[in-house]
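RECORD CONTENTS
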Amino acid sequence: MLWWLWVFALAASAQTAEIRVVDIDGSRLEIVIQAGDLDLPRDEVFDWIAAQAKAVGVYYGRFPVKKARIRITPTDGARVGHGVAYAGVEPLVTVDMGKGCTAETLQRNWVLTHEITHLALPDQANSHRWLEEGMATYVEPWVRVKQGQIPSEQVWKELVEGLPNGLPEGGDRGLDHTATWGRLYWGGALFFFLADVEIRKKTNNEKGIRDAFVGITAAGLNAATQGSITEVLSAGDKAVGHPVMMELYGVMKADPHPVDLAAIWKDLGVSYDRGAVAFDDKAPSAATRVAMSKP
């Protein structure tokens, strides 16, 4: 009899959603783990979610919105799966999590951090989806660098391998007019990478793209508010003291604007060979690369 009660209790616990509310510097984050089986103790999952949210808040100067909900849905498998961020008065982030995920799996994964970073931008028109996806693609790994989750060398490797996907192909137009996967995610990331480098050069490495996002967040522009692409970019430019992003948008929004990545890597002192990156601290803009890499 007791054995059956024990089995019933386990089955019931697996079918009950758990909710916890976390305060992140005055922002209310409701974390929901849906009914379902997970090998990890749910306390560890809650702690992982809260840690990622806090890291995003540190990057943006504060958590981007005053309240939000993160919903985890247990699924089959052993990996973190699909994630989506929804804008609104109370933004929602949803992520699928495989039953067999380990603590190491969670620490290596980028999906949750990627989706939480979306909360720092207002919902954009379809023609400006590259702004949202490019921002999350570029910012997410730097958030994890700054919390010590991954080394900066990994980010440079991912940039060297990934940014070519964002370069215009034959027949492509500007970012506002080419909705391919490569242009949406990596073309958008290329925009923010170029802006980051240019901001640092104009400010003698005193500021970078992170300062622009701190300014955008401070201006109250986020997934719970309304704001056009020009309002967002202008707020970021104001924060760094130079119209870098608006000028870059002017040349990339309607025209292909080819970018010589090889020349940029040489200038920054980044080389790539057989899946590994190496750095030249004597390169002309090596100081910019070093400043970008600091945790």
User: Anything to note?
Assistant: The chain has two domains: 2-120, 126-293. Confidence is low (pLDDT under 50) at residues 1-13. Residues 126-293 form one domain.
